[in-house]
Design a protein that fits this description.
It is a single chain. Helices cover 35% and strands 23% of the residues. By secondary structure, it is of the alpha/beta class. It has a domain of 172 residues: Rossmann fold, CATH 3.40.50. The radius of gyration is 18 Å and the shape is globular.
């Protein structure tokens, strides 16, 4: 039986008196790509903030390997944070650091590797995302797709078993978006990590996600749970159907859990 790395129980999210979501419960197992779906303003980003420690929920629990994050002291929270990587929507690379330095940063913070070992690991993961030859480049010298791949390399560098990806395809052209989807699947297959994907990009959701939850902004509660493809084909909920059927699904990478040998060497061919 697969291990549940993330267990969310009855989460309620508020900003003061304003209710965002309530009754949010789900689990994410190792090797799963889990989608957080819903329209703009439904609370996807707020949920993500609760999961990564930026916003304390009004009620409920966020457990990592059975340990309640928000019930823990700061030292315990720091240890738990070392167990997940994060790709922000903007990639959030440090502009004053090279790609090598950006990827080495979580290794310096969360591992006991020495400088030479950190550089070796950074070069390894940059190679996985097709950026080995750009290690000395600064973020300003890269295209949008390359920045996304560099952010992915940084997220996986410390071998965290759980990855959070916030709108990873946002701002990318369709071809770069497709190749990024392929890369996400290949990294999941290579590392065995669980991935929580926050997105409203329908083709990506249908193509690569094994499970998911759908947040409704009007009722302020989840209204569906399951793989996006299954919900697309079977859900009768009007909000879910309206969201998932706004366009026909495009041809995308092989279905989630299918092993792929396709090279993930280039979201883009070179610097912009």
């Amino acid at each position: 039986m697969a291990a549940t790395l993330l267990d969310v129980q009855g989460l309620e999210i508020r900003y003061g008196d304003r209710l965002v979501q309530r009754g949010v419960s789900f689990g994410v197992e190792r090797g799963t790509i889990f989608a957080v779906m819903g329209g703009s303003g439904c609370g996807k980003s707020s949920l993500l903030k609760c999961l990564i420690g930026l916003l304390e929920p009004a009620a409920g629990h966020v457990l990592y390997d059975g340990v309640d994050y928000w019930a823990s002291d700061e030292a315990a929270r720091n240890r738990l944070r070392a167990g997940f990587g994060m790709l922000f929507q903007s990639a959030a690379l440090w502009s004053s650091m090279s790609l090598m330095e950006n990827v080495c940063l979580p290794l310096e913070l969360h591992t006991r590797l020495d400088a030479a070992q950190r550089e070796h690991r950074a070069r390894e993961v940059l190679g996985w995302v097709g950026l080995a030859e750009f290690a000395a480049y600064m973020p300003a010298d890269l295209s949008g797709g390359m920045k996304k791949r560099a952010g992915l390399a940084r997220a996986i560098a410390a071998e965290a078993p759980l990855l959070y990806l916030d709108e990873p395809s946002a701002g990318l052209d369709p071809v770069s978006s497709l190749r990024l989807d392929e890369l996400i699947v290949s990294l999941r297959d290579r590392t065995g990590a669980a991935i929580v994907l926050v997105s409203h990009e329908l083709p990506s959701l249908l193509a690569i996600c094994d499970d998911g939850i759908f947040l409704d902004g009007d009722s302020h509660a989840p209204v569906a749970r399951g793989a996006p493809r299954t919900l697309y084909e079977e859900s009768s909920h009007p909000v879910v159907r309206a969201f998932l059927h706004r366009e026909e699904p495009l041809t995308r990478p092989a279905p989630a859990r299918a092993r792929t040998e396709r090279a993930s060497s280039a979201v883009d061919e070179g610097p912009s």
